[in-house]
Structures
1.
Amino acid sequence: MTAQVIDKVAPLLLLSARVFLYALAVLIAFRLLNGGISTRGLLKDGEGGGVSALRLQMLMSTALAGASYVVAIHRQTTARLPPVDPNLLALVGGSNGLVLLKLAFSKLRNFLRINPQA
């Protein structure tokens, strides 16, 4: 009897999860466009002040992975979340790792007081 109840409730749970995710995406997009979420300095390089290629890469890979997973959720027909693609995990993890390595080397250089032009 419990399996029958779960089978009847599962589509409702899936629908409510989809509605929540779509509403959240719309809310975030609205707040970004409205200025409610500040993006000032999001891509700035801490040392040079220009746009950081690593931060841009990290933003794009995260957005790509997020969009890919949202599409996978939209295509899902069962009441379970779809599995995360290991390639997307590697992409996002590698991208974030590069940014963290750059920050760590920058902190280390500042700590050791090495002249960056040398």
Note: The chain is about 70% helix and 0% strand.
2.
Amino acid sequence: MSGASGRIKGLSKHGAGIDKALRGRVSLVLDEVFRHTGYGGIFHSFNETLPHVTGRGFCRFCNACSEHPQTMGFCRSAARTGAVQGHAIGDVWFFRCWLGLDSLAIAVAPKGDIIGAIEVGGFFSPGGTEEAQQTILSRLNTLTPGSLGRLPLDALQGVRELNFKQVRAAADFLTQATFACGLNQPAQFQTKKRIHKQRERLARRTRELHVWTRPAHEALLESLIPLVGAVNKGDRRQASRELDNFLGAVLLRSEGKLERVKAAMALLVSAFLREDVDRGNVWKSAIRRFEERLLDVEKIDAVEEAFLWAEDMVGRVCAHGGAGSDQAKGSERLSDKVLRWMDKRYADKVTLADAAGAVAASPSTITHRLKVETGKSFSEHLTALRISEAKRLLVYTDLSLREISIRCGFSEQSYFTKVFRRLVNLTPGEFRGMLNQERP
């Protein structure tokens, strides 16, 4: 990876107050984004004691607007607002600035709290360049006449059009770059994204539940029956759908009050206890599981946390054989046997037929059970294991890419690179370079 090349604004003004480590990481991200996507970016600080950092290749017109006394406030506000909205859903935010240029914004939150925004852009939507340029000129004319002489209006002719695929690819690279350089926490983004997706699903379910004539508390109780049934079958997809029904009813019944939500979670746990006992499991084991789950519920501090907990808990119970499963019985799903075998063999040239012979099951049975019990195929699990090990070797060893590809079960280095880039949005070399780059 090449060194950072961002230009730092306000260096002499802020002097020792500048966080040099943060500045270096931001510059590194901006440089890498430009080098690998061709799109320049800028860092807008939320704290004026920190510098704004302009990366190589940033749109000349946008850069001038971000520095002009009459326009800088609008530009920075748009990027900051976009970053806050993106941070709320755990993703990059696509936005259109006050003038009409399209851009991407991602929050910079190395310790959880947002301290700045990285903007990448600007660009135009396909087929909209001429209209957007006219809009920009029209809006600029509403500002004080004669004060915009420094804005390079000719630079608008060089602004590119980007389609959705190109924008999404740039957004994915930007996200991975902030993770690799320590500007964002992958786990935090993943959690926020899960919450956002769950909210969208539950919003649809609550709209449907509103149509029902029976009271919400009846829908709440009735939704438990098919949910427990799906869990007992180990059908994760059906269990997920039934859980959405249950949580939708919880939303309507609780009116957003945490204590009511926690009471509903206790009801869910009680349903699993009932099933545990009905299936003849030892009372002490059943009540232990019940008490452990209730303790988890007691620790919940927010409605969103409760819903994620329910999703995780149902997923775990599904994976362990049902609401009334007793691990002391030593039962093991076929998918668990296959995954345990695969974890020891992923470096070899393994096939589905090899796995079938190892666990004494037909290839078609394995294919079906993996899909039902895990939601993924044999090849998807195998590839995930290999890429996970490749990441570890890239970070913690000096092995060559060829050696790593061999150790991880890839027949050719070129194929390893292709698969790695498809799943990580970086080549193995780029991934190693970004993570091992010496921090300023």
Note: The radius of gyration is 26 Å.
